[in-house]
Amino acid sequence: MKDKGVIVTGHPYAYPYYFKVFTFVDKAKFIFVLPKIWRARLVIKLEKIAGFKIYGLNALSYGRQSFFGGQFKGWLPGILWLLPYLRLRYQPRVLYSCSEPNLLTTLFNGLVAKCFGLRYAIFTWQNIPAENRLHGIKLRLSLFLVRLNLWLADGVICGNKKAELIVKQLNKTIKTAIFPLSGVDVERFKPGLVSDWKQRLNLFDHKTILFYGALDKRKGLNILLDAFKIVQDQSSKLVVVGRGPEAEKLKQQTSLLGLGGRVIFIDWMDNAKLPELLNTADIFVYPSVPVGGWEEQFGYAMAEASACALPVISTQTGSIAEVVLNEKTGILVEPNNSTALALALDKLLADRALREGWGHCGRDYVVENYSHKKIAEQLTNFLFNL
Predict the structure, then answer these.
(1) Which residue of 70, 282, 289, 383 sits 20 to 30 Å from the alpha carbon of 235, by its own alpha carbon?
(2) How many C-beta atoms surround the C-beta of residue 208 within 10 A?
């Protein structure tokens, strides 16, 4: 009975780099119901992939700026009519909804799953208790919805250890597992790739520090610029890749600090090009800071950097310590502390052997714990044993 198939739904898997984890599962046992089009920073159109059973539906909401203020993010109402057909044709046993328990989308999917006699699994990244993020009527409504979704669910995949603690505080008996929704492509993100980025960015004879991600307040890049101003190796270069609301402020700060000749800003870059850029760098830095009841929930960029055998400097906040092992694969400092960040940069910039040693330890750690193959094994074991 437990060998029957799983229906997978949820807007995160509209992204090809998240979906790739399923290339490591038994494709015959998985059916996918995903948005035909997903509108975020980029517009993603669903494509058929050989060997996969993929069904596209229209999404009614894409998040905060659309229907019902984000509570219906990723909602595919058509699943109500599609599910009877899938139930009859494939006889699945489980519906896995990759959506947070504080969403009405998750509630809708749970009710549909139970109506058709399916086991139900959901996913959560949330590593900050609701009491620390909300208050008043919003807190009460959110807790009610989360408890209801946990009551409907037969299992919860938690993207980090703190998320599991929160789930268990609300439902002590529910089955849980800890792993991210997808893994890292360790065959693409690996050391030793040939790259022309040093020539293109004129980085020869310069130790290079790299960041990529969203240029918003949560990433702490203003702190990084302050730290970079005072590092001992004044010939080092900082490459910042990404887009976001803080981009212009960060460029202005760079000019005010007199760092114009040492900091290089690159606009958004396709994920496929990042491995070569990572192989150009000496250190990856990700100075995440807590903002408005949010803290870093995983950090794929850090895991990708480690997979390329780069040492990582980040902060002691959120769930970063699950991705970066302090003094083993990198250095973790207090958030919002430019002096501590500068000292960490100095330590690694001055010691090539340490950079290489921690970098290789980081790759081993990511391959063993966060590769697509490893996450696919955990995902399969969890869903087929609900």
Answers:
(1) 289
(2) 20
Q: What is the dihedral of CA 147, 148, 154, 155, to 10 degrees?
A: -40
b/e 330-339 (16+ beta carbons within 10 angstroms → b): bbbbebebbe
Q: Which fold has domain 6-183+371-383?
A: Rossmann fold (3.40.50)
The mean predicted confidence, pLDDT, of the chain is 96
DSSP result, 314-338: EESSTTGGGTS-BTTTEEEE-TT-H
Distances (CA, A) of 180 to 167, 226, 290, 303, 379: 15, 32, 20, 11, 9
What are 160's two structure tokens? 């980090």
Judged by phi (left if over 0) then psi (alpha if -120 to 50, else beta), residue 70 lies in left
Burial 11-28 (b: 16+ CB within 10 A, else e): bbbbeebbbbbbebbeee
Residue intervals of the chain classified under CATH 3.40.50.2000 are 6-183+371-383, 197-369
Q: What confidence tens digit (pLDDT) does each residue in 199-249 have?
A: 999 999 999 999 999 999 999 999 999 999 999 999 999 999 999 999 999
| Residue recorded with tokens 């992939």 | 49
- 24 secondary structure, DSSP code: G
Average confidence (pLDDT) over 360-364: 99
Q: Please give the model's pTM, rounded to 2 decimal places.
A: 0.95
Calpha distance 318→333 (Å, rounded): 12
Fold classified for 197-369 = Rossmann fold (3.40.50)
**How far is it, in rounded angstroms, from Cα 130 to Cα 35?**
29
